[in-house]
UniProtKB/TrEMBL annotation:
Protein name: CCDC93 coiled-coil domain-containing protein
Provenance organism: Eucalyptus grandis
Residues covered by the CCDC93 coiled-coil domain: 1-127
Lineage: superkingdom: Eukaryota
Coiled-coil segments on the chain, per record: none
Length: 147
């Protein structure tokens, strides 16, 4: 049962990881779609109103103000994306530190295990030597007793 539960747990973890990956991909594509729709809307708006805006001074000023607003929105979006990247970078650094600590702990555990195995082998060797000495001792006692 334990092995089957372990297999099921691994399967569930794999499905969960795939689901998270699909959600991340979906969210990224959805954001990309929104940005492309905004860009298309902007280009269509510019195309339809450019000639009217250039023809008079008030139109030019309105176009400049509109472009400045768009630039401001783009800068805000860029800042938001950069903050997201920095947050992801912090998470990545934290995970790297945890991984390094776990790897160091595993190396330490492996060295302790190796030392324990060496001590067990040494202990078994000493026990066998002691047994062989104890086995030889009764014979020596009999020989000494017969003298």
């Amino acid at each position: 049962y334990e092995r089957r539960f372990s297999e099921l747990n691994m399967t569930i973890e794999e499905i969960h990881r795939q689901t998270r990956k699909y959600y991340a991909t979906y969210n990224a594509l959805l954001e990309l779609k929104e940005l492309m729709l905004k860009e298309t809307s902007l280009l269509n708006s510019l195309n339809s109103q450019f000639q009217d805006a250039i023809s008079d001074t008030a139109g030019r000023l309105k176009l400049i103000d509109s472009m400045e607003g768009i630039l401001k929105g783009i800068k805000q979006k860029l800042q938001k994306v950069q903050e997201g990247i920095q947050a992801d970078q912090r998470v990545c650094n934290t995970l790297r530190e945890k991984y390094a600590a776990a790897a160091a702990s595993q190396r330490h555990g492996s060295s302790l295990l190796r030392a324990l195995q060496e001590e067990i082998a040494r202990n078994q060797r000493l026990k066998s030597e002691l047994r062989s000495r104890n086995a030889a001792t009764p014979c020596e006692v009999e020989v000494i007793g017969s003298l």
